[in-house]
């Protein structure tokens, strides 16, 4: 186990996480069937997103919430989906990393998942 402390570590984390996601029956279909993710574009954005969140590098430019609203219109993104996302994220971190940044990555992801789940639910009610 090593500390989560570099862009390379984030790339390992994100790549390992999405390897689990695409195989998962609960959320994999969002990526494979609903939005048909272009991984060459998506993965670098996720590296930058987590680099910004964890290391304050400000390499991410975008609005993650705004990106998810159109997906939510195509296929409801429900609390159970965010719970699965969070479980896979935590599992991936715990398999690979230790330390303060690993703990922070889990805490931040919990906040993100809860906020996203709430906002997607509210958007479906409008």
From TrEMBL:
<dbReference type="InterPro" id="IPR001486">
    <property type="entry name" value="Hemoglobin_trunc"/>
</dbReference>
<protein>
    <submittedName>
        <fullName>Group III truncated hemoglobin</fullName>
    </submittedName>
</protein>
<keyword id="KW-0349">Heme</keyword>
<dbReference type="InterPro" id="IPR012292">
    <property type="entry name" value="Globin/Proto"/>
</dbReference>
<dbReference type="GO" id="GO:0020037">
    <property type="term" value="F:heme binding"/>
</dbReference>
<dbReference type="GO" id="GO:0046872">
    <property type="term" value="F:metal ion binding"/>
</dbReference>
<keyword id="KW-0813">Transport</keyword>
<dbReference type="InterPro" id="IPR009050">
    <property type="entry name" value="Globin-like_sf"/>
</dbReference>
<feature type="binding site" description="distal binding residue">
    <location>
        <position position="68"/>
    </location>
    <ligand>
        <name>heme</name>
    </ligand>
</feature>
<keyword id="KW-0408">Iron</keyword>
<dbReference type="GO" id="GO:0019825">
    <property type="term" value="F:oxygen binding"/>
</dbReference>
<dbReference type="Pfam" id="PF01152">
    <property type="entry name" value="Bac_globin"/>
</dbReference>
<keyword id="KW-0479">Metal-binding</keyword>
């Amino acid at each position: 186990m090593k500390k989560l402390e570099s862009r390379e570590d984030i790339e390992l984390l994100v790549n390992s996480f999405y390897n689990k996601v695409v195989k998962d029956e609960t959320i994999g279909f969002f990526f494979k069937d609903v939005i048909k993710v272009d991984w060459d574009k998506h993965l670098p954005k996720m590296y930058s997103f987590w680099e910004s969140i964890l290391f304050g590098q400000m390499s991410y430019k975008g609005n993650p919430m705004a990106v998810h609203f159109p997906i939510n219109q195509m296929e409801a993104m429900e609390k159970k989906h965010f719970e699965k996302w969070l479980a896979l994220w935590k599992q991936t971190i715990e398999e690979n990393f230790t330390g303060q940044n690993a703990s922070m990555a889990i805490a931040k992801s919990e906040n993100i998942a809860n906020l996203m789940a709430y906002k997607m639910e509210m958007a479906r009610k409008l």
